[in-house]
Design a protein that fits this description.
globular, 8-stranded antiparallel sheet, alpha+beta, 2 helices, 19% helix, single chain, 147 residues
């Protein structure tokens, strides 16, 4: 597996948080994308998700870049970030759907340790549809050292 060091940036990120099992996050992602379209917006990038706590039942934050700013005040569970930018991070393509994400996370942590880097968790899992299937790019932001 190839690990690359690179920046990452997205604008107008609409997010929704839900507690669910690992196999249920796609349901929430589809619901978020449908709500985006129903409200006159359109996705401008891939679905991303982050998970907190555990690989069994966890809190998932599903995020999708959209075409314009969104006011989420009063919308429970929703968030909006005008810009999501990281100047430095590690990217690993997780293309084997049979393999656990945790194994890829361990690989990223090991690589970071070898190079003396500290990673910011939770990682960003970028879902990319490919020919009726999908791959996940895992982006692990590198924490900046205090000046």
């Amino acid at each position: 597996m190839k690990i690359e060091r690179r920046p990452m940036a997205f604008v107008n990120i609409l997010g929704k948080t839900a507690r669910c099992a690992p196999d249920e996050w796609p349901i929430f992602a589809k619901e978020l994308r449908n709500n985006i379209i129903k409200n006159g917006l359109y996705p401008t990038g891939p679905v991303m998700f982050q998970m907190e706590n555990s690989f069994e039942t966890a809190e998932y934050t599903i995020q999708v870049p959209v075409n314009e700013e969104v006011d989420v005040e009063g919308l429970e569970g929703y968030s909006f970030n005008r810009i999501l930018i990281f100047d430095d991070g590690l990217l690993l393509r997780h293309s084997d759907s049979e393999e656990s994400l945790e194994e890829s996370y361990k690989l990223l942590r090991t690589c970071a340790k070898e190079f003396g880097l500290k990673l910011q968790e939770p990682f960003y899992n970028i879902h990319i549809p490919v020919y009726g299937d999908a791959i996940i790019d895992i982006y692990a932001p590198v924490q900046e050292e205090p000046a």
